[in-house]
Amino acid sequence: MKIVKWLDEHMEEFLLVILLIIISCVSLLQVIIRKIPWIPSLTWAEEFCRFCWIWSVFLSLPYTIRMGNMLRVGVLLDMMPNVVHKVINIVVDFVTTGSMALLAYHSVAVVQSIKASGEPSPAMLWPMWIVYSVMLIGFVLAVLRGIQQIVLHIKHFNEKELSTLEQTMLEAAEEAALAKGGEE
Fold first, then answer.
1. Which pLDDT does position 112 carry in this prediction?
2. Are 55 and 36 in contact (CB under 8 A)?
3. Which comes out higher in pLDDT, residue 8 or 132?
4. What is the pTM of this model?
5. What is the three-class DSSP state of 163?
6. Chain-wide mean pLDDT for the chain?
């Protein structure tokens, strides 16, 4: 059960950190190898890093939905009564989830089309459908996170939400406490 909880809370963060570490290491290795004359440069490094950046974009979708960091105008919501605020959040969750579901549906056709073409990537010669399948994975995970947010917003409908300013202040206080705890 702890594994499921950890995956629920940290899966996207973990994958995004791993991708960032891989991008950093491969880019650094490419720079170092480029300066050593008797070792040929890594012809695949730039393409691989580009794929990792693209993958991180699609894997960040479910993360932003889970964290509630999608683009929005929080000040307008803060000015509305709590009930209206909650209803708008649920409507936004439905619209976001529906949009991600529509994108997931159409990405299946895109991945199938690319798979049928048999096109490889230029430098690494990977099948491009593998590279593009992260698009489908990201949208499907975003749909799951969207459903999760809908359930959470409905479940906690009667609880008062913090305003955008209150949330920002709370996050800043938590970060300051973590920084202070790290100094000791």
1. 96
2. no
3. 132
4. 0.81
5. coil
6. 89
CA dist., res. 56 & res. 71, Å (int): 18
CA distance 77 to 85: 6
The first and second tokens of residue 143, run together, are 């749909």
Contact 44, 120 (CB under 8 A): no
CA distances from 148 to 8, 36, 79, 162 (A): 10, 51, 26, 20
Distance CA 180, CA 184 (A): 7
Hey, how many other C-beta atoms are within 10 angstroms of the C-beta on 176? Answer: 10
SS3 state at 127: strand
Backbone CA torsion sign across 178, 161, 4, 100: negative
Q: Name residue 120's beta-bridge partners.
A: 127
